[in-house]
From TrEMBL:
GO terms for biological process: monocarboxylic acid metabolic process. It comes from Erythrobacter sanguineus. Belongs to the short-chain dehydrogenases/reductases (SDR) family. Residues 6-185 form the Ketoreductase domain. This is 3-oxoacyl-[acyl-carrier protein] reductase. It comes from the Bacteria.
Amino acid sequence: MKLEGKVAAITGGTAGMGRGIAEAFLAEGGKVALFARNAEKGAAVLAELGAGDRAIFIAGDVMSQSDLEGFIDQTIAHFGTLDILVNNAGGAGDLQPLVNLSDHAFDEAMKWNVYSTFWATRRALPVMLEKGDGRIINISSMEGKHGKPVLTAYSAAKHAVNGMTKSLAREVGAQGVTVNAICPGLVITDIIKNNGPATAKAMGMEFEEMIALFASEAAIKRPNEVEEIAAVAVLLASKAGAGITGAQISVDGGTAQY
């Protein structure tokens, strides 16, 4: 029970990696607050998790500052504290060559990935700093270490998330708060299944070809599993991860070997 009694707020917590992390935290004795847009799905996920009063759902849009700050405030009000923040929500958005990329699309990528991380972290930090203990885990991407065609805005956003992670780790490390990023490679989640065909088309290939390409770039020659991402999140959130901060940990099967 590595996280017994610990309270975690997880954005994008009802599907994919966010849900996987929530399940892993609950299995280790933690309490979780999940944030996503679809209230009906949120209620269904809570029922499926079967965690009783150790899990709550709050509906809102991660691209809305007021919604996101409200989520942090409600989590603290409900559980009385906040120990762990997982900035998981994010995505690639409009996939275009840079010459065709609109200002709006670039802004959306920044808002979805960078501003959301900034807003939630800024709201959560005071309670962590006051008690001298906390964990911030940013779900970045291997595209935050290198890049691919038509993913320019997304890659720029995830590089920014990694930069924020490194700087904030130095800012709050002596006050007991660690800040790390997990950089997943290809993970076959619902969002990949739903949006992947459009990504592949923008890259000039079929969906199956894109999956095979991404897998071929990894040392393990396969996509990663949600559980593999969640296991690293548990480490970073637990006492065992207290000496890790400012890291951008690749969980990408050996795609970006740094």
